[in-house]
Amino acid sequence: MKPSVGIFGLTGCAGDQLVMLNCEDQLLDVVAALDIRDFLMASSGNDEECPLDVALVEGAVLTRRDEEKLNRVRERAKLLVAVGTCAVWGGVAAMDGGRDGDRARLLAETYGPTGAAYDSTPARALHEVVKVDFNISGCPIEKEQFISALSHLLNGNAPLFPQYPVCTECKMRENNCLLIEKGEVCCGPLTVAGCNARCPALNIACVGCRGPADDANTTSALAMFGEKGIPRDDIVRKLRTFAPMEGPGV
Amino acid sequence: MSTTITVEHLARIEGHAGITVELEGKAVRSVRFEVFEGARLLEGLLRGRSYQDVSQIISRICAICSAAHSLTSLKATEDAFGVEASPQTHLLRDLLYRGESIESHALHLFCLAVPDYLNYPSVVALAADHPDAAKLGLRLKKLGNTIQEVVGGRAVHPVNCIVGGFGALPAEDQLIALRRDLQQGMADCQTAIEILATLPPADFCHTPTVFAALQPPADYGYYHGNRIEMLPEGKANGGVTFAAADYRSLTNEKAVPHSHAKHSLFQGRPFMVGSLARVTANREKLSDRAKKAIQKLALTLPSDNPMDNNKAQAVELVFDVEYALATVERLLNEGLKPERPAPVRPRAGTGTGVTEAPRGLLVHSYTYDDAGRIVSADVITPTAMNAASIEHHFRCAAEQAAADSHQALKKKLEMIARAYDPCVSCSVHLLRS
Predict the structure, then answer these.
(1) CATH classification of B2-427 is 1.10.645.10, yes or no?
(2) What are the residue ranges spanned by the domains of chain A?
């Protein structure tokens, strides 16, 4: 029997669902292998109650409505997969004031007095609200990792992704190092691989959009940033753009 | 007797929105396009960030429009600092923008809008009966993504576009492969128009509409230009124009309790932006092939039917594939000149950029300090501009469908919302009050 699947978006840019739809060459085969029951962005004929073998959830939790929806999805699903950096880490909405103190002020600034009544809570990653079984990080996720994760799950295996940093892939591509040679704030040493060092290969410093790498030498990387004379605040701010410092706890 | 028609969570659109229409007998008491997308407040979070980080962060407003946000952001920053990007940079950005438009229109037409016309819940269901049409739509969608990958470095959230230029230029072999894909795309567009021309008419909402669009200084397009034209109601010419920097006069935004998207009004009235507005305002700039598509689709301009936005997207699809092919051929003939991004010298001041995102006018305006850090940022998105117009058209459809069953009216309301191709993630990003 085909596994039943639901695909859900909380608050975000819908980029990870878009990447799924961007698997144009595989899309019709992928949907043929699955029993997609609930995918609001792509279908109007959804079953919003049925139990699910797998729930794929993108976006961060930014409203009480998001939280209720996520809890409901968790109840329905045997496996819940956090898809994309917002779901795994909180994403751009969780940077700096998005996560704590400044939120009420920002809301008032943007919407005036009407804003105070809006359903709005500080950005949280999925793991801060429910148990998450697997993570597929990336802003947006990489097609190849998504297809690979699905085929692992279809075969009853856990999807495993590299834990080493972008630097490893960058060296394999023989790119010139933007940090050592040009002194740019490149997040490659601390960011998890899987993008094949897409940005440094285009002479663009890594912005850390995939979130932190478990297998990174943080002390050494910070020392190197220091040697290059990059102010610590700049580094911290850049590293916190897509992911707060705490881990996803999975 | 009063009744309420509710679409709790609108499917086959980007983001989270619903529809509520209250009827009193046959009279329409109220209509609401409800946006409950969470507010990410990215404009506020930009404060203090370096100009180098801005376009990468702000593109995350929306994935489907990420190239539009990225390039509009760069236009605003370059305006603030007086950066002059090279003609080659502008040419490549124009190409990238068309790639996004091709992808977005193909996705919207084939995966989101067309299933309604043929009574399918999704493109997957449609593919079971019409596999060739579905595959054609996906091929065109992929073509748009390939352009974005070649120029922007990634199909969603481009990484290669920076203030002053690009990190790296496309390689010749990428352009050669792209030319082949575009040649296939030319044939696919013709077939797409033939398929779309056979769809049953969507003829249930008629009212004279006010359109607003960017004035392209030369060719029909989305990236170049900095003047906005506002057409008189129900007219295709004789509009008033104003500079991008005066965007506040375009959008007299108003926060409303039922929506996290502020409503934009021009002189107190709703207006429509997007493909139909562009095709209406700039019809004479279209190619012969695109004009033939207008005929084939029986699109009369100016249109009083918001559903015609779907036809206008199809017309743009034809134009953009043809234009992108000409651009790629030109790049291959002339050769790409190796060049570094234009020099950037940050200075204190404000800059504004305006472009045409796939869904319509998009404005970014930033104020920087003398170190090139953001002091404040405004982003006004097409779906925010369209929100009041969507409600206006809901009302018209509800009034004109008084004899319908509630189920039939509900479907019409959904189709109108979808015809706008709303991007709800975008819509919650707004001008600060």
Answers:
(1) yes
(2) 4-154, 166-239
